Amino acid sequence: MVHRPVSGRTLPGTVRMSPAIAAMVPTARADEVRMVQAAWPVLDRLHGPGELRAAVLSLLMSGHDEAEHDAWQLETRGVAGAADTRSLLVSLPAAAHPALTEAFSRRLASHPLEIRQETLAGARRLMCADQRVSPLDRLHLLQLRHLLHEPTPLHRGGLREWNELTSLPLALRQAIASLTAFMARCVPEPDAHATVGLAGTAWYQAVVTALWRDPRQAPACHVPDGDTLVRALRTLTALSWHHRPLLARTWTLPALAHHGRRLPLVAARSLRCACVLLDTPLPPDLGPAFIELPDDGPRDDTA
């Protein structure tokens, strides 16, 4: 069974927010949750390949860039209701966009391969339309490709495996370091020039210190190129199921400490993408940054 970054179960037609979290969030967040609750019955009807593709591409748009909008219109030409769906999606709070993107991407995964391939190609064209592809854009593309493919069974590990990340084989620790270096341009805060700033360097060092018993032996923070990043993600498929949430917490806690427990949305979304790519649940401390949806499971359309 593949773990998803949403835990627990929710009654159909509701948006998940625990009583403890609800008591802490401001009125503005409660209003945002109600907006998603009102929109979800409409969005939950999206199941056709064209409308799902239009929804996913809408959610991947970075803003109101004219070139992106023109590209989106080309990609969704002939899809009935695409403009209305996009208008509804962009009216919803950004904190709900990750869960919506994941839900619609998973629904698309049940469609034929050529539709999934064209969706991924369309996402690339959309993101390249404005000649600017951010680190978060690249993570979103990797996440989309991951969600559109058949799930890979998790490596269960063995009884002799230790729970500490320092016990991992060197190849796995190096792969984690590569992915961490890539995310350091967004975590704990996005760098204006898409480079690793002081905050990103400090966060990277905090993470790799948890991977190497002697931090002096840890690799320096070098942002990997695309091929190296993909190889690192392939290597991480060998990470056992009980190490994955531990790694997610190792990423999240120093990032939260930097901001006093509240992350910028770009940083939170980057960490969420990493959790999706690892097929591991979100750490509890990261969950309040987002508005979740009902479980995207089978339903009876004849009811």
Give an overview of the whole structure:
There is one protein chain. With 303 residues, the chain is mainly alpha-helical. It folds into two domains: 133 residues, no CATH class; 114 residues, no CATH class. It has 13 helices and no strands. Helix 3 packs parallel to helix 5 and helix 3 runs antiparallel to helix 6. The longest helix has 17 residues. The radius of gyration is 19 Å and the shape is globular. The two termini are 28 Å apart. The N terminus and C terminus are likely disordered.
Total DSSP E strands: 0
General shape: globular
The largest pleated sheet is described as: none
Secondary-structure-based class equals: mainly alpha
* Alpha-carbon distance between the two ends: 28 Å
The string of secondary-structure elements, in order, is: HHHHHHHHHHHHH
What's the alpha carbon Rg, rounded to whole Å?
A: 19 Å
Helix content: 40-55%
Domain unit count: 2
Query: Overall mean pLDDT score?
Result: 86
Query: Spans of 5+ residues with little confidence (pLDDT < 50)?
Result: 1-25, 296-303
